[in-house]
Amino acid sequence: MPFLKDKEIVPEPLDCRILTAALDLFVRRGYHNVSVHDIQRMANVSIGSIYNHFGGKEGVARSLYYHLLDEFEEMISDVIAEDLTNVERCNKLIKLLFEYTESRYEIVEFMLHAKHREFLPDEPPVCSATPFRTMRNIVKWGMDVGEILHGDSWITTSRVFGSAIHMIHLRLDGLIDKPLPEFYDELIENIWRGLVPEKQDQVLKAVPD
Amino acid sequence: MPFLKDKEIVPEPLDCRILTAALDLFVRRGYHNVSVHDIQRMANVSIGSIYNHFGGKEGVARSLYYHLLDEFEEMISDVIAEDLTNVERCNKLIKLLFEYTESRYEIVEFMLHAKHREFLPDEPPVCSATPFRTMRNIVKWGMDVGEILHGDSWITTSRVFGSAIHMIHLRLDGLIDKPLPEFYDELIENIWRGLVPEKQDQVLKAVPD
DNA sequence: GTCTATACGCTGATAGAC
DNA sequence: GTCTATCAGCGTATAGAC
């Protein structure tokens, strides 16, 4: 029986507790290895509440997914609003993704690593979602204005973001044991070598925070 | 009731039928959305046989996984045995992976796209398996003998194979609607631009089949 | 070795009190 | 809105005949 003092704990909203618990469990065990009872237990709510708020386990996952997609989208919008060159935008996004991977591991895992098709059958693949489309557009804009050398759009995007995302996967899988930000400078230099017109050294400098 | 004539159909071994059916189902619906009954039905065998041969659903998945890892490993050994430069080896592997993605879609999907952790909890991640280690070694050998410019090993490998693998993911997710081999030449040219010492145009030429 | 029929636990979901 | 108690169905696994 908790003392009254314990009640002074910040009363985190119920929805939030559920989503936080769900994210943690989904990432650690995988969606299908988590039951509604598990979520209920970890979030300290009743099953009834979960069904009232989200309509069931799939509803929780979908809500989580949309929520995080929104966060992601917002992050990209912020970067675009910052008035950088398109190359700098790419750099900044990679930097942010690398930092997220270290500080908010579960989010990146859930968004980049999870197979949503298996539990959200009606959702299109993540890569076709707005944030990823925008990332591809940034590369296209860069080619249009001559910042980035012309080439097939899929190839160029894969070369810019694909290798970074691949490193994120390797990090999440525990193969790379150094924090990703430590790779940032060398990776960026490597990415643009041969992808930008001659003598554009300024792409090297880290973007301002 | 089938006529005797039907019995002339090549008697494919029972194990093989099970594994083929399982691969198909796992890839289409995801491991957790497939029941032993589904496999049994599609393979035209009884549940008992599945338990006799593989000990259960997880056993089927594990057997399938090992089997395909072996195939993959063999493919790489063949390439290494071919006496090519390390750069050519990378090219050849990317070419083969692209071709596999088109011709043996399910295999690539199951090996590169599936989250094995969720149903084979004791297996290390695919990327730490021998084939992938060998791919990283090829890049390292290339750096050692001066074919490939020196740099961090993770970064260089991600730049060489990561972008190709990323394109495979995009293709499997249905975003890229052209067969991957059509991207091969431009991608290869793009990959080595800035990664090999000056004037090494020969990397461009497609490797002999 | 192969099959059928059956058992049993777990999970998603609901009903109904508060 | 929140909770507890309960249900129905599915999916793994086994027992035992052939």
Looking at this protein, list some descriptive labels.
homodimer, 209 residues, mainly alpha, Tetracycline Repressor, domain 2, 9 helices, 61% helix, elongated, DNA-binding
State which percent range the strand residues of chain A make up.
under 5%
Rg of chain A, Å, rounded? 20 Å
Main pleated-sheet profile of chain A: none
Tell me the helix content of chain A: 55-70%
Classify the oligomer: homodimer
Poorly predicted tracts of residues of chain A: 1-8
Q: Give the second-level CATH assignment, the architecture of the domain at 65-204 in chain A.
A: Orthogonal Bundle
Q: What is the CATH class name of the domain at 65-204 in chain A?
A: Mainly Alpha
**Strand/helix succession of chain A:** HHHHHHHHH
Per the CATH scheme, the topology name of the domain at 65-204 in chain A is Tetracycline Repressor, domain 2
Largest interface: A-B, 41 and 41 residues
**With helices defined by DSSP (H or I, 4 residues minimum), what is the helix count of chain A?**
9
Query: How would you name the CATH homologous superfamily of the domain at 65-204 in chain A?
Result: Tetracycline Repressor, domain 2
**Overall morphology of chain A:** elongated
Overall SS class of chain A:
mainly alpha
- Overall residue-averaged pLDDT value of chain A: 91
Count of individual beta strands of chain A: 0
In whole angstroms, how far apart are the ends of chain A? Answer: 47 Å
